[in-house]
Amino acid sequence: MTKTLHHRACHLCEAICGLTIETEDQPGGSRRILSIKGDAQDSFSRGHICPKAVALQDIQNDPDRIRQPMLRAGSEWLPIEWDEAFALAAERLADIQSRHGNNAVAVYQGNPSVHNYGLMTHSNYFLGLLKTRSRFSATSVDQLPHHLTSLQMYGHGLLIPIPDIDHTQFMLILGGNPLASNGSIMTVPDVEKRLKALQARGGKLVVVDPRRSETAAMADQHLFVRPGQDAALLFGLLNTLFEENLGRTSHLPTEGLEVVRKSIAAFTPEAMERRCGIPAQQIRQLAREFAAADSAVCYGRMGVSTQVFGSLCQWLIQLINLVTGNLDRVGGALCTEPAVDLVASTSGGHFNRWQSRVSGLPEYGGELPVAALAEEMLTPGEGQIRALVTVAGNPVLSTPNGRQLEQALDGLEFMVSIDLYINETTRYADLILPPTAPLEHEHYDTTFNVFAVRNVTRFNEAVLAKPVGALHDWEIFVGLAKAFAAKTGAALKPTLAPEQMIDLGLRAGAYGDRSELGLSLARLRDYPHGIDLGPLKANLGGRLKTTAGKVEAAPMIFLDDLQRFSAQEIPKEGELVLIGRRHVRSNNSWMHNYHRLVKGKPRHQLLMNPRDLESRGLVDGQRVRVRSRVGTIEVEVGASDDMMLGVVSLPHGWGHARPGVRMAIASEQPGASANDLTDERQLDAISGNAALNGVPVEVVAA
């Protein structure tokens, strides 16, 4: 039987590592996967691979994966034909909107959406026809403060400076654990080697985290910080830079730095040390070392975004890079120039043009904070959400107060899900529409090339044939759009296949028809290992989208939040607060049905400092009850010296043993959902992003 070697990017996390996948032809024309390995010739990942890549084979072969449309009939699921499914969805959604208004139909798009180019190119072909303001996504439990900060300071929500990790001499990481995440809003395959290279060239790595994470363990310095108080540390650092005149003049046109300096004058390291738990002298020394480095970059990720001052944190990080002259500088923070340039081809975004009906939370880019989703379903009145469309999402496990959301989903009139599984969320759907599996369609990364530590591009053909009767995700959206337009009389514009859209984007970009490279899809097909387009370089000055064409250092939404920051009470001694954590074998809730990824040491435990255990009469390995304002869970506790006193850590995405879930391996795993504890009322007040870190909890024996 013929064996074939295929080249493919892994799309299961942000690192987009190159793979070689060997297949063998089978009788009847099918193919069997023999192996998945790292592609040593890949222009970006250089042969690196993490355990998640093998899950591509598990997804393909998973007997629990849905392979045809399914209609719920009570507790049973019945197969249904595509055209009948599209007509049913269109009829029910149109009827609900005709009776209750467009906003009565909501949309939730999950994290896998941005990993899949068909979802990126075509989801709005249908969802846009709904004309609803009730749109939500995983962005507001993950990274909204990043986008809002870039919109306010640089004029575009995707104009996010990326650490120039390969050239920096000093890297300060807050709330990030790239050894587990493979980078996040920093597309960086093989991050461990890159960090070791930083140290080998005489550079320094400093990690700030309430847990001694995998990345913190290899750092030159690790600082414990009180959860939710990273802003206090960042204020102390920036104040020191101003007070001790440690900054460098930036080449970027900038407005508002003097306003910032005066506004934060009271936030000295001495004033901030009690809040963040780091001594003032240590804060000052860190600021001095950062400023003195030949090049330096401050990078903050999920741990600092998902807290009550998440937007302040991201603003302060940008200011620290700016004030030290490291913004838009080699070895500092640089913006990418991707082959398909979403910054050049899209509007910058908008903020707070409307608010959620119940709590008045602001929209960003047409989406409301997902913390408001359940209350918008449960609260009667005009505009109440009565139907939901979910796309590649599992908000019951990934958004705050999941038990409340379960209650809300159970009361909907209609729900349709585009998904591969009957999971904790889609079990409430009336209709599930499954797309082809990842290896059955082409792949181009429209999103994570925008955040890559080098300018790279790569297009990969499908590894396996599209099954008879199956539809790609983009074809599902086209089918739904046609049915909805036929039902409502809405105008439907012609569309192109995703690969044709990518070709247009490549040809219109900086490396396309106007360049010597002449990049097009046809040419890119000749480079299955991808093309390295060069290192990041200074370009922010020419790409600014602000009205004045300058870096806006002092947007009012951040200055106005300083009063809230000043008024926050100092954390009380003896209280416990909850944080999350990541693992390289997991990605949110959608990696737990694959035996290769869940084997090994259990990773579901609540981690707790031994002294906190002892003071509560608890012991390592026992069952404990964890309580917050919104709920209670039971879980095994694990003693860990890596935990800061007063802090407990529970990974999110677990808790699969719920009625109706049809994911056999996941359902057998122990563990509870961290989002049965997180609080939908605990938010970053500026953006509305969920504050999943720093949640007050009690821990007692079960």
From TrEMBL:
- Tell me the domain of life: Bacteria
Alphabetically list the UniProt keywords: 4Fe-4S, Iron, Iron-sulfur, Metal-binding, Oxidoreductase
Query: What range(s) does the 4Fe-4S Mo/W bis-MGD-type domain occupy?
Result: 3-64
Q: Which InterPro entries match?
A: Asp_de-COase-like_dom_sf (IPR009010), MoPterin_dinucl-bd_dom (IPR006657), Mopterin_OxRdtase (IPR006656), Mopterin_OxRdtase_4Fe-4S_dom (IPR006963), Prok_molybdopt-oxidoreductase (IPR050123)
Concerning CDD domains, the annotation shows: MopB_1, MopB_CT_1
**Name assigned to this protein:** Molybdopterin oxidoreductase family protein
Organism whose genome encodes this protein: Metapseudomonas boanensis
